[in-house]
Amino acid sequence: MIREELQQIIFNAIGKEFKLSKEEIFLEHPENSDHGDYSTNVALILAKQLGKPPREVAEEIRSHILNTKYKILDTSIEKVEVAGPGFINFFFKKEFFLGELRQMVEQKEKYGSGKSKEKIIIEYSSPNIAKSFGIGHLRSTIIGQAIYNLYTFLGYKCIGINYPGDWGTPHGKILYQLYGKKLKGKTAKEQKKILNGLTIENLEKLYVDFHTELALNPAMEEGARAWFKKLEQNNAEARAIWEATRKISLREFERIYDLLNVKIDYTIGESFFSAKGEISPSRGGEDKMGQIVKEFKEKKLARESEGALIVPFPNDELPPAMLLKTDGVTTYFTRDLANMKYRMKRWKPSTIVIETGVEQTLHFKQVFLAARLAEIVDNEKLVHIAHGLYRSKEGKFSTRKGQTIHLEEVLSEAIERARTIIEESETTRGLSDKEKTEVARSVGIGGVKYNDLSQHPAGDIVFDWEKILNLKGNSGPYLQYTYARCKSIARKAGNSKFQIPNSKLQFSKEELDILRLAYRFPEVVKEAAEKFSPNVVATFVFEVAQAYNNFYNTHRVLQAEDKATKQSRLLLTAATAQIIKNSLSLLGIVAPERM
RNA sequence: GCGUUCAUAGCUCAACGGAUAGAGCGCAGCCCUGCGAAGGCUGAAAUCGAGGUUCGAUUCCUCGUGGACGCACCA
């Protein structure tokens, strides 16, 4: 990667006595192209240490670079300049851009990919059983999937895990409601029939009703707890109802994942760790929670407090976390530790990434620290990606009050809007009804995904129908449209082979703008992965598309002035299409050839 | 009360301590007898407040203001 090569030659020039590692050498793309393609401020930093004027230091670095026989000086670099207070600016040769262009069209979907051999676990999605898939779970699902795609692209062996909430007291509530309202007094056979006919909406309504009715009848709380206890004790009836609700939910989630083009390698829910052996013998259900409690006791990391078993942290770095409640029941802290232990043992990853909402930040700090104290993990990297929440203009959505915005509703609405535009558009005239349906799906869903992924994961997202369904401006459809436009031109040109234009060819400003962006794709991917921020890719690809559209509106491709120009513009068009397609693919967005 | 985090244009968001703070929506105007107008161009419009560190601060530190999230028997 060109960026790394530049860092290397600067590193060689500044000498090892300065405390800057190669990776710390700051290189930016100046906004103003007069300042070059890359710019570094190292001279400004070193000037302080040396007590010399910054420009003088910059000049020294510059001549050191120019006086060393680097290959890229011949092949790629036009000039190196010292500018302003002491920036060193690098300008690229046309040959460099042409070389990158060639790689884009030759390497296609491999352009920018990496060869890491590390293993990384990514936990994402993790919806709750017996609730419909809300807009809130969209974030974890698609951010997690994008991270998965990014790391896979960089060569990592990724293990994607869905960790659904299929255990705990909320399930007691569902059981209580189901039994009391639908199953009471029925024979086993009748019950089975009723359970088979249930939908996710039924379950969700029961859950919401539970909380409204609870206000009038506080005894329900006790009833729910009793049902959960039955479940824990392997009561056959409780188990049958629970299994049924779980099955309904998982089937529903599969449908959504399919719609979203999300692929998850393993679904291992909370019950896997919580339920005792008898419940899930086929899944090796030994008492994983008990083992954790035992281990923490033996290592003297846990102590009793007010009747509960807690894990205090050294120097009160974090508030204590609870392993066992006063009634002896484990908590989700215990569960996540068991989870960590299980994953370390089964996969031996170098990194574990967990993607959840921000509200769990403290919890995962506690889990990670406790896991280190207990040596469940060693040098492995533990990362919690905490995404902000979807909220309405009024505040947070509450499942309990039934305010959830159903993802499916959003998706159908988006698909419908896309369909309307497709019907009006002339560009899709030749498409069959089936193809139009397919395109509407890609565009509608792509828009919803892009709306989410283009924002920094950490921030909250204000849910706005108009924005999420927007098909114009900085949106998924804008990118898809630009891609389809490029493809259309290629089709009209007969998809002829490209000849790499010779370096005498002059590029217009608009063409250079695209070239100066497109080659950054590999470093953008790397940065997005390192920061666990898919929005870095989104911002980048939007800029590329903008640059292309600007070019498109100022120059002709098919009717270019001469043959050589036409060739180079076709090449540029093909490369742009490739960059857009690769970027969208990392974001999990489909790029239709026509729309 | 304590902790974490955020505050950028009317709205929704970018910006790795760097050069003139970028976009989108919306608003005002312009551009298809030429490759896809789901497009392009032009314009108005912003760093919460007060200090500090720095050659240079939206970015780092302190204080204040306002919001979000969390702080042991929900996950």
Question: Overview of this structure, please?
Answer:
The protein is an alpha/beta fold and 595 residues long. Among the domains are: 2-92, 2-Layer Sandwich (Gyrase A, domain 2), CATH 3.30.1360; 407-586, Orthogonal Bundle (Isoleucyl-tRNA Synthetase, Domain 1), CATH 1.10.730. 54% of the residues lie in helices and 10% in strands. The chain has 23 helices and 14 strands. The strands form 4 sheets. The protein has a 5-stranded parallel sheet with strand order 7-6-5-11-12, with helices on both faces. It has a 4-stranded antiparallel sheet with strand order 1-2-4-3. It is flat. The two termini are 34 Å apart. Residues 277-285 have low confidence and may be disordered. It binds one RNA strand of 75 nucleotides through strand 1, helix 2, strand 10, helix 14 and helix 15.
Task: Produce a short descriptive summary.
This protein is an alpha/beta fold and 595 residues long. It has 23 helices and 14 strands. The protein binds one RNA strand of 75 nucleotides through strand 1, helix 2, strand 10, helix 14 and helix 15.
Helices and strands, with pairings:
Layout: H1 2-14, E1 27-28, E2 38-40, H2 42-50, H3 54-66, H4 71-75, E3 77-83, E4 87-92, H5 94-107, E5 119-123, H6 135-153, E6 157-162, H7 169-183, H8 188-196, H9 200-214, H10 219-232, H11 236-260, E7 266-267, H12 271-274, H13 288-298, E8 303-305, E9 308-311, E10 321-324, H14 332-347, E11 351-357, H15 361-373, E12 381-387, E13 390-391, H16 407-424, H17 433-453, E14 461-462, H18 465-468, H19 476-492, H20 509-518, H21 521-531, H22 535-554, H23 563-586
The chain binds one RNA strand of 75 nucleotides through β1, α2, β10, α14 and α15.
